[in-house]
From TrEMBL:
Pfam families: DctP (PF03480)
Signal peptide: 1-25
Organism: Salipiger abyssi
One GO location term (cellular component): outer membrane-bounded periplasmic space
GO biological process: transmembrane transport
Residues that span the membrane, as ranges: none
Protein name: Tripartite ATP-independent transporter solute receptor, DctP family
């Protein structure tokens, strides 16, 4: 009888240990809309290295859902807020749930990627992350990179805003981009991404704007003759995690996830920089004319576009308009 009691007690203790281990051995669903190939996809590369580090240094399991397997960016953000997907990598969708993030899209704010990294990885980026956490319930673990956006067209070389007059440019259906292109003298035409190739090939629009890697990898350079490397908007990626899920983890697990996210963000940045450098060479080799504006020419673009966009954002953001000034101050400080 005494032996049976000891056996039952041991069995109960073993079961309790197994249940505890199962509770700690959680699975993180990580989703994004980019391809899975790490050599050509910044989000794909970031997600894969995040998985490797988390699984290698903790008892957590990571399941990847690339290429929009769980939906578009808006849907991924909603899933993360509902706790259905724990980690998401998104770019444009962030400003829809945290309007203050839209200040990062003010044209010609960042003169280089290292300047953007310094601002985002510093006090400004930390403060924006905390603000967006309060707004959304999603914690920004790190910032990645989608890259600088550039204009292309099929009509003529663009060196100044005056060269854009009369040209129709496809833009994302986002008011800020409509304001920007209109202020530069072009005719902004909102068109869904999936309809862009047909719009270019049929002449519905004369041009478009995207990062170099996106332009090359999607064959848009075959439908356009000219590219201007004006880098009008630096697009950041946000590595987000449900804060409710994050707070339920053990401190050691949280530490590993935070470390993995920072490495992942930097990995995404590196792949994006590689794709940009390689993409410029490739589009030129395939016949596209690429022009790099001078500092004076870039200033003319900034002088034309920034006032209109900043005025629009101040009205749109209301009390959050302070983030415009905070960003400008951070850029000025980092530039010194």
């Amino acid at each position: 009888m005494r032996f049976q009691t000891k056996t039952l007690a041991a069995t109960a203790a073993l079961c309790a240990g197994l249940f505890a281990a199962a509770a700690n051995a959680q699975t993180l669903r990580v989703a994004h809309v980019d391809p899975d190939d790490w050599t050509g996809s910044k989000k794909g590369a970031a997600a894969q290295i995040f998985k490797n580090i988390v699984e290698g240094e903790s008892d957590l399991t990571v399941e990847l859902f690339p290429a929009g397997a769980l939906g578009n960016e808006d849907e991924l953000v909603s899933q993360a807020q509902d706790g259905l997907t724990q980690v998401v990598l998104v770019s444009g969708a962030m400003s829809k749930i945290c309007p203050a993030a839209s200040v990062l899209d003010i044209p010609y704010t960042f003169s280089s990627a290292p300047l953007a990294w310094e601002v985002l990885d510093g006090e400004f980026g930390d403060a924006l992350a905390e603000h967006c956490l309060e707004q959304t319930g999603l914690r920004t673990l790190a910032y990645g990179e989608t890259g600088f956006r550039n204009f292309t067209n099929s009509e003529r070389e663009i060196r100044t805003p005056a060269d854009m007059e009369g040209l129709k440019f496809r833009v994302q259906p986002i008011p800020l981009y409509i304001e920007m292109v209109g202020a530069l003298g072009g005719e902004p035409t909102p068109i869904a991404w999936t309809e862009l190739p047909n719009a270019l090939s049929t002449g519905v629009v004369d041009g478009q704007e995207n990062p170099v890697g996106v332009i090359y990898n999607n064959g848009l350079h075959k439908l356009q003759q000219y590219m201007t490397l004006d880098g009008h908007v630096y697009a950041a990626d946000f590595l987000l995690i449900s804060d409710e899920f994050f707070q339920g983890l053990e401190p050691a697990q949280q530490e590993v996830i935070q470390k993995a996210a920072i490495v992942a963000g930097n990995m995404g940045r590196s792949i994006q920089q590689w794709n940009t450098a390689e993409g410029v060479t490739k589009v030129q080799d395939e016949g596209m004319q690429v022009y790099s504006p001078t500092a004076e020419e870039l200033q003319a673009f900034a002088d034309a576009a920034q006032p209109a966009v900043v005025s629009y954002l101040r009205e749109e953001l209301g009390d959050d308009a302070e983030w415009i000034d905070r960003l400008q101050d951070a850029v000025a400080a980092a530039s010194e």
